[in-house]
């Protein structure tokens, strides 16, 4: 069971918009720690998509955007493309006694029909 | 061009010790704004952070694995090594190394901007 909760899967058609949620608690996202998002496509290395809640690294299309509020964060992907199909992970920091380190969400499998 | 590449054994027996090497290029392990972290992903499961190492020898490990993990580095060779003792079949996973970028807002907001392709490790008798 991951400390950050993501939906196991989301589906969208090419051109549509999907949103992936990442729900935490007061010991991680709610404590104000930054949320980062990674894309993991089949057979490739994970790729940083969004850092510090809403910033895109150079080279990441503006179709990808991140937001954060209270104990949750979201990744929105507009203008879905077939090459977006893969797994998406949120990441933050948790300061609870049982964790006190980097934590990931369980991942969301994006299917583009 | 920044690259990271993991290497190590593909198959281990239970109780053996895993040693993985991460060869980095395109940045220096002397850089105080960067470090290297290790992760793993068991088949069908999520990414899991294992630990990190920075230029000042600052290290941190996942709490539940702390007694089994050691991360060291050879700065001159641009290598970071992960050692995990007493391997078990549940440790079967793809292991990744990644570059840590220090966040302006503090170490708890650090993120991982470049990743290796990963190396698969199976533990079986």
Account of the protein in words:
- By secondary structure, chain A is mostly beta strands.
- Chain A contains no helices and nine strands.
- Chain A has strands spanning 9-12, 18-23, 36-40, 47-50, 64-69, 72-77, 86-94, 101-104, 108-112.
- In chain A, the strands form two sheets. In chain A, strands 1, 3, 4, 7, 8 and 9 form a six-stranded mixed sheet that branches.
- Chain A is globular, with a radius of gyration of 13 Å.
- The model of chain A has no long low-confidence stretch (mean pLDDT 95).
- Chain B is mainly beta and 125 residues long.
- Chain B contains no helices and eleven strands.
- In chain B, strands 2, 4, 5, 6, 9, 10 and 11 form a seven-stranded mixed sheet that branches.
- In chain B, a hairpin with a 4-residue loop joins strand 7 and strand 8.
- The chains are: A mainly beta (113), B mainly beta (125).
- At the A-B interface, strand 3, strand 7 and strand 8 of A face strand 9 and strand 10 of B.
Structure at a glance:
The complex is a heterodimer of chains A (113) and B (125). Chain A is mostly beta strands and 113 residues long.
